[in-house]
Specification:
- The complex is a heterodimer of chains A (148) and B (302).
- Chain A is mostly beta strands.
- Chain A contains one helix and nine strands.
- In chain A, the strands form two sheets. In chain A, strands 2, 4, 5, 6 and 8 form a five-stranded antiparallel beta sheet that branches. A four-stranded antiparallel beta sheet of chain A has the order 1-9-3-7, with no helix packed on it.
- Chain B is an all-beta fold.
- The chains are: A mainly beta (148), B mainly beta (302).
């Protein structure tokens, strides 16, 4: 008997393109857009990790950076399954850090359709802007692991 | 962590679980761990390996006080015996007290030694370092069973498909390190692991760092070698994409972790991984930051 193993692979992207002097207080993708496709596993569950390096090196360091995942069915033109939300799935930096601080935030996504294709990307914004806008990103991480 | 096998009927495998609550709790004053209201809890079943990824995440601000959130694990239910007591250094996430606005982060550790098939209860507990100006706006906990053993009845699963998770932690405090190149420190915090069929693992580094506001940052980064500490370097330590660092604003210890994927390993090959650290001398401060705890975990991935 031949048994075919279907291991939906981990999808991930580690990018260290700097995003400097963030001005947008609405979520944006940045350049490059950090997004990956993945297939909903049999369990319908994936573990999502987002993270990177963040600072505000301005004279009066008061801006945080929010980094959160946005999930779509199919592609970024598809139905939005989950809007970016720093509170539940995102990394939010410390405004008082004048040098880059690196870390991650982990959450579980449930209720996905097994076998369906999804697209997930990183979105970021700076907290309610206090001029000058001096918050920066050094690196962004996105890891999607199919889990039981 | 494997997906289901095509055609297999996977019924008994324990599920990943998560729980979270966004009720804002203001002016936290307890300096010992409390559950808060509502309690953030979940039940989970230990997999055959007895090992799970245990993550706690929070949103917190300090107003000069540090907030700590840690998992407590009990057998069976909320009234069960304590298997893992809440301890921020070992398992918790913590924010710098200097944060005047909400900070969002998490810490992942690997909990091993659970009884396969047994049900456990996990809840978050929090406390503050002092004062009564700290707030919490989000508490969450996620448990993912890992390194699944041969639990697919009747399926030809190779051991190499799911080698065990590796985990090491040390709570020896290292004060005022000033090395500007990576060192392993004393004691070395390291693991050996076998690369899975996918050739892919999750590297987790974390711990507690800080303890001196305005100090040069400390980086914790993973190094991977073939076979043992004398083996060829497969991955050199570098903070940008894989490391965890201190908050340079933090006058106390802050706790968290960082994770990354390492791909292209040789399936079945034995590897060695350790957490290394250095001090960022490009920073404007002095070398007065400390290390409270260092973690490293290696998790085979699909």
């Amino acid at each position: 008997m031949t048994v075919v193993r279907s291991l939906a692979p981990t999808a991930w992207w580690h990018d260290d393109t700097a995003q400097s002097n963030l001005t947008s207080t609405a979520y944006e993708t940045g350049t490059p857009e950090i997004g990956v496709y993945f297939i909903g596993p049999e369990s319908g569950r994936v573990r999502v990790s987002v993270g990177g390096g963040f600072r505000d090196n301005g004279g009066s360091a008061l801006d945080r950076v929010f980094l959160a995942p946005q999930l779509f069915l199919g592609s970024s033109a598809g139905t939005e399954i989950a809007a970016p939300a720093v509170a539940t799935r995102g990394y939010g930096s410390v405004a008082e850090n004048t040098e880059y601080q690196y870390g991650s935030r982990v959450s579980l996504v449930t209720g996905l359709t097994p076998g369906a294709r999804y697209y997930i990307r990183l979105m970021h914004q700076t907290s309610a802007g206090t001029d000058p806008d001096t918050a920066d990103i050094a690196a962004r991480d996105l890891i999607v692991i199919p889990v039981p | 962590m494997p997906d289901a096998l095509v055609g297999a009927r996977v019924r008994a495998y324990p599920s990943s679980v998560t729980a979270g609550d966004s009720t804002q709790i203001d002016n936290i004053s307890s300096t010992s761990f409390v559950t808060g209201t509502p309690v953030v809890s979940a039940l989970f079943v230990a997999p055959r390996s007895g090992a799970v990824l245990l993550t706690v995440g929070l949103a917190a601000l300090g107003g000069t006080n540090r907030v700590h959130l840690a998992p407590e694990v009990r057998t069976g239910s909320s009234g069960g015996s304590v298997v893992l007591a809440a301890d921020v250094a070992e398992r918790g996430v913590g924010t710098p007290g200097e944060a005047a606005s909400f900070v969002y982060r998490s810490r992942t550790t690997v909990l091993t030694g659970l009884t396969p098939g047994a049900t456990y209860y996990v809840q978050t507990m929090h406390k503050v370092s002092g004062g009564n100006t700290a707030d919490i706006a989000r508490r969450d906990v996620t448990v993912v069973p890992c390194s699944l053993g041969g639990s697919y009845a009747g399926r030809p699963v190779l051991a190499q498909d799911f080698p065990p998770v590796a985990w090491s932690q040390n709570t020896t405090q290292i004060n005022n390190p000033n090395n500007t190149t990576y060192v392993a420190g004393t004691p070395e915090v390291s693991v050996t692991f076998t690369a899975p069929t996918s050739g892919r693992v999750l590297l987790i580094v974390g711990g507690g760092l800080g303890n001196a506001a305005g100090a040069d940052r400390i980086y914790l980064s993973p190094e991977v070698r073939l076979t043992n500490s004398a083996g060829a370097v497969v991955l050199s330590p570098a903070v940008a994409n894989r490391g965890f660092s201190s908050d340079n604003c933090s006058s106390g210890f802050a706790y968290g972790s960082r994770e990354s994927v390492l791909d292209g390993l040789i399936p079945g090959q034995l590897y060695f991984a350790r957490v290394m650290y250095l001090v960022g001398t490009g920073d404007a401060g002095t070398t007065t930051a400390d290390i409270a705890v260092r973690d490293i975990g290696v998790v085979p991935l699909p």
